[in-house]
Structure formats: C-alpha cells, structure tokens
Write a structure and sequence with these properties.
It is built from 3 helices and 4 strands; from the N terminus they run αββαββα. The protein is an alpha+beta fold and about 110 residues long. Helix 1 (about 20-35) packs across helix 2.
C-alpha cells in the first residue's frame, strides 16, 4: 500500500470538527477498550473486533484519518461473519505514536504461535 513518507508523526485533533470531537473520543475509547485482541505490527498495530462492530469502526476511521494523516487504515472482514481486523500502520515510529496515544487502552495480547 502506498503512503507518503514525508508526513510528520503528529496528530491534529483540531481536524475533527469541534461538534464531533467528544463523540469521536468516546467512540475511540470504547472501541479500543472493547477490542478482542491487539497485535503489534512492525509499522503499527492491528485490532480485532466482532464483525458487528463494522459501522462503529468505519465511523471512527472516517474521523481519525483526518486527525492522524500519517496513518494508513485497513479494515478486513473475515468470511462467514468472522472477525473484523482494523490495521493502523504508517512510517517508522507509527507504532510508538499510536501506543502513546492509546496509553493503556487495548493492551497487546500475549504472543501467539504463528
């Protein structure tokens, strides 16, 4: 997936319209707290949700991509009602920025055999 390498690793919370900020923050906090699994990736992180979370995940991504323009978002739905994965990736340092932004939310799952 192509993504610009020149974007600074900085979020712009003012990119979300003021009337939507509180709801966006609450949605993000709820989603990340409810994630069924988190996997750290070399260039970001992946979160697993039930397929029924699609509308909320899409709404979150729609706003989040405005305030974090360096992040690439990928939503993957498994067949037959399987889980939804949200991948947030970007240039070097993205995983660390996301971890700092998320704080204790959506802690990584123990390492799983591959």
């Amino acid at each position: 997936m192509d993504r610009p390498r020149h974007l600074p690793l900085a979020c712009r919370p003012d990119a979300v319209p003021p009337e939507e900020r509180e709801a966006h923050a609450a949605l993000g906090a709820r989603l990340f707290a409810d994630a069924e699994e988190r996997r750290d990736l070399p260039d970001g992180l992946a979160l697993r949700f039930p397929a029924a979370a699609l509308a909320d995940v899409a709404r979150f991504v729609d706003n989040e991509r405005r305030c974090c323009p360096f992040v690439a978002f990928a939503i993957e739905l498994a067949p037959d009602g399987g889980p939804l994965w949200l991948r947030l990736t970007g240039p070097e340092g993205t995983r660390e920025v996301l971890a700092a932004e998320l704080g204790g939310i959506a802690r990584p799952a123990p390492s799983l055999p591959r």
